[in-house]
Structures
1.
Amino acid sequence: MRAKAKIDPTATNFDEVETLNAAKQEPLWDLTPLFPSLNDPSIEHAISESSTSADAFEKTYRGRICSLNARELILCLSEFESFEEKLENISLYASLSFSANMTQPEVQTLHDRVSKIEAKLGKQLAFFSLELGALVKNKPEIIEDPAAASYRHMLERVYRRVKHQLSEVEEQLIIEKDQFGVNAWEELQSKWLNTRTFKIKVKGEEKILSYGEANGLLTHPDRETRESANKTIYGALGKDGEVFSSALRNICNDWVNVSTRRQYQSPMEASLVSNDTEQNIIDNLLKAIGNQALSYRRYLKLKAKLMNLPVLGNHDLVAPLPSAPELKFTFEEAETLVTRAYSHFDEEYSTAVKEMFAKKRIDVPPRFGKRNGAFCASYFTGKSAFILDNFAGALNDVYTLAHELGHATHDYYANRSQTLLNTNIPSIVAETASIFGELLLTDLLLEEAKSDEARKQVLCLVLDEAGMTAFQVTSRVWFEQALYNSIKQDEYLDYKTICSHWITARDRIFGDAVSWFPEMEAEWTMKPHYYMANYRFYNYPYVYAQMFVYALYERYLQEGKAFVPKLKQALSAGSSKSPKEIGSILNLDVTDTQFWDNGLKVFERFIKDIEAIL
Ligand SMILES: [Zn+2]
């Protein structure tokens, strides 16, 4: 996933983009392998089949899962999987159709109908997860039973989760009270953002813009426009700082209560459980990043030089270099580049990529009514995936394509080797092939760059992105930890206190390499993740994934071709093995305190490359 808007904020409207792309005839995806059309009777047929299959499953298993032996459990799990496979094709078809054409009435109708069916079937089969939890809790020896070997790790994860489950009534009460209680803070924050307008100077001309439009200007090529957007947005957010701090203070305090009641050791533990990782691994990771903050700052100082600035402003962090003529690509060029990058690594490894193009699994052009950004959705029964893209021809768009095709490659291998329940890959592993794909593209682009100028653009893009993902995100983890430490010490989290935690964490990374507008103390107020109740510490998985893949890439450079089958094996494992075990397939020991330094070497090398051409 890359949650970045890929649409040029300077384009006046979508219609222009659409006409342009229609002329170029960029490919749309072909969803007919799922269903022939929106109104085809086979959709009704599939819906009634999943309903029947859910009824049959309920009839056979409700109240009985707790007493199953290992052999019976395997049968139960595979029956559950075949129900899920049926439902997943309908859900996938409805959600992909919706993402591509949100404004079409028949798409909306199908999407709404399928959401309701999912909710109904989800409720009907909620007993499955509860009873499976009870079985594993009461008979933990079933995890090690050789008859259940193919689901061993899945059952281990259930066991780890179930220890923190409350009684059925307590769980229901939490859901009911959260719905109109702590969840409301998230609604308040997004309502605030979406109901304001901002007066921003765009290339010297004052414009009144919505939050979405204003936010798009934060990376505008014109520096004064970026400054105006930053100061206006964060200035306005800061004025209502006490409102946002009320929200965050209450969400965090609520989480302390909930996680204590659930017997988590710390406010971070729930997130460690769902990411299938451990505290000491994450502590080592954050420490390693903290120790290397100086090399990131070295890059930021270089970037200031490239932009002819004495010091980088916060609004320059991910800004494009002003001097460079922008690299532009047609979609065909992007396709060729990415395919070659994957083939260079290994011919067979590029099969999934080629198939994604050949079978029309990618929806390419931006248009009105289509979701922005890009994502890759696994297509389990097709042993493949679908990619929604918004290709606009910039270098960044070629990277997005390389990234999403990495996800498709991961799906290609995992969907061939695993059953459905073993493809529930936690985010720290799910980004392996995608970030690796970006590195393969970087290698190819650097090798073939025709000028230092082009090389500089590639390196800056890569370092900007890696710097944000590994370093800036680490400061956000520290910020979140600081909030909980404050609560533990009975400190009151008012606006200024929260801002001071934000600034302290931020400066641990950026030091003297960046000068910040005073308004930026309010930067935390607009991050939607902080307002999502019961979803804490969303951040470190991004850092983990980036550094894990950098370390893995370093290993590839050392081992050469011998590394190829190991990577395929790791991707084929899906979620049937823990992230630690997946590391060991690749000869990587994520529990080693020095492990993360291997990833940082790759980062350091990119900086040296850019220093060499200055
Ligand atoms: Zn991704």
2.
Amino acid sequence: MLVEIEATGVCHSDLHVIEEDGWGHPFPVLLGHEGAGIVEAVGESVTTLAPGDRVVIGWKTACGTCAACKRGEPRQCRRPPAAPGRLHRADGTDLTPVLRTGTFATRTVVHEQAVAIVPRELHVDQACLIGCAVATGVMSVLETARVWPGARVAVIGAGAVGLSVVQGARIAGAAEIRVLDLDERKVEQARRFGATDASTRPVDFVFDVVGRRATFELGLSLLSAGGTFVLIGLSPEGERAELGLPELFSKRTRILVSHGGDHVAREDFPKLAAWALDGTLDLAGMVSRVAPLADWEAAISAMQSGDVIRTVLVP
Ligand SMILES: [Zn+2]
Ligand SMILES: [Zn+2]
């Protein structure tokens, strides 16, 4: 289906694509995977949406036919369906949309399953964040880790995904939400989203939104016996870490990997949108800046410097 993009967030994964030589995407690449907009046209076989629907585009959708989907675990699907290639540059070269979405554009073509309808009352600048940062952070807490009420939680890295983990932990009823970041401004900022005063006691859950050796090893050291480590952040190629097997065994540490919070767009996006509308989730506070799409390079620099939580680009 053809979607007219109204707003798109600038995410670290777009930077990862740049830094990791395309991250497996054939060049030329169309960046952007956190978009929202209006359905403009649909293919003949599309039955669940119609032109005029306001949608959030999702990069992680379930295929419905793989082994994971067939055993009723669409959240574990690793074969998200893509629309047949329809994007080209002016010279006719095929253009690869990042994560099958490609939202740094005025229009994009995505698979029917890759969008979820959200209410028009939710401001589109905020709605787009649901497509990656918010779904990843909140669902890592509620689905991947299943944090329980009263749990002690630590979050390493307080960008948009980290702040969404903080909000997810607040929704789950965590008693303590400790935020660690090299940038003190971000630690302070996280209080607005639910971060609490921290004790020095070990925690039940660590969410590593950074994905480096130092954060992995720090995270393991913060865990209590029986604690759960959740890896969310993308690591650079070749990154390695060390862990002591006797300590792992005696502490019964669980290590989980979250692919975007294991979200399912059609199930989770409407719920996250409803939470944004009733104030359970603060999305407005996460939009630091709205800028024209043409300023995407400056927006990526601002993200690297830590000056913004999210820049939202508007075509
Ligand atoms: Zn992203
Ligand atoms: Zn599947």
